[in-house]
Structures are given as structure tokens and as C-alpha cells.
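sry for the spam today, last one i promise. C-alpha cells for design, 165 residues
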């Protein structure tokens, strides 16, 4: 069995229009939503073997906050430039290449690629993965190179607004 957790970065700030998109930080809501989601993941027992994130400032910060909340060493997060502005095809290729020893993997990145990836791999249709939202998909295989070519079972679709209800 393989488990993939797809997480969109928390809400980012548009306060400084001179910043490049890559350098936008989290806004206040993002700074509160990221730990909320991390605490939720810890509560339901989600602890990945590997976290891979976009190096964009907002995704990097989200990944670090969530990692700390779930007990994953933030220094072990892998940052991949290819996640930033990634197409669903390149994200799917990355899933195919995940390390054999990582059975539970979390990817932290951006839309629209992450929503599209969740729809390709999962068995429910998601219109939009909200900021700080997470989708969990379980695959009935022991190999990532098979998981990336099949429909898995979507077992989790949570986001801050849903948890605050």
C-alpha cells in the first residue's frame, strides 16, 4: 500500500506588489491555517515518511509549519523546483519516481496542478483544492511506479474552512 497526501500551500500575501510570485509570504490567515491543518493531520495520525515541497516561499513555510506539527523534522523536507508552476503531468511523473522506501509521501505545492493531480489519481472529483487544503489518496500497490498509473481511493479531503465549521 502507498499513501499520497497532496497539500496546497496556505494563504499567501499580496500586500507587496513588487514581490515576485515565487517570493510571496504567507498572510495572517495562512499563518494560522497551516498549524491548524498540521494539528489536524497529527490528530488523525498522518505522518509521512517523506515531505517534498515547492521552494516558493509560501509553500516552503507551509511545509515547515505542518512538518513541525506532525513531528516530521523540517530539515528533512526535500524542495523541488519542478513543483512550482508544475503541470499535472510533471507532478504525476514525480509521483512515479518517488523512493521505494517512502510509503507515505506528502507533496506541498500549488494550484492548479495539485487539484488536477488529485483528480487524476483519486476516485472523487474535486473542483478546487483550497489554500492549506489536503487530499489523501491510498493505492493498493507496493510500488509508486504502479500507483501513478492507477486510480487510488481518496480517503481524506480536508481544508481549514471545513475544520472551522
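last one done:
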Amino acid at each position: 500500500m502507498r499513501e499520497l497526501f497532496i497539500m496546497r500551500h496556505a494563504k499567501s500575501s499580496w500586500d507587496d506588489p513588487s514581490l515576485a510570485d515565487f517570493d510571496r509570504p504567507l498572510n495572517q490567515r495562512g499563518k494560522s491555517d497551516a498549524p491548524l491543518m498540521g494539528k489536524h493531520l497529527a490528530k488523525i495520525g498522518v505522518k509521512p515518511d517523506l515531505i517534498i515541497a515547492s521552494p516558493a516561499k509560501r509553500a516552503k513555510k507551509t511545509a515547515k509549519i505542518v512538518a513541525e506539527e506532525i513531528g516530521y523534522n523540517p530539515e528533512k523536507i526535500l524542495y523541488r523546483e519542478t513543483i512550482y508552476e508544475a503541470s499535472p503531468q510533471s507532478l504525476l511523473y514525480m509521483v512515479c519516481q518517488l523512493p521505494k522506501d517512502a510509503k507515505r509521501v506528502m507533496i506541498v505545492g500549488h494550484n492548479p496542478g495539485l487539484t488536477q493531480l488529485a483528480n487524476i489519481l483519486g476516485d472523487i472529483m474535486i473542483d478546487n483544492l483550497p489554500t492549506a487544503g489536503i487530499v489523501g489518496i491510498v493505492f493498493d500497490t507496493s510500488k509508486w511506479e504502479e500507483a501513478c498509473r492507477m486510480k487510488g481511493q481518496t480517503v481524506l479531503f480536508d481544508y481549514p474552512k471545513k475544520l472551522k465549521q
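The chain has a mean pLDDT of 96. ok im logging off now
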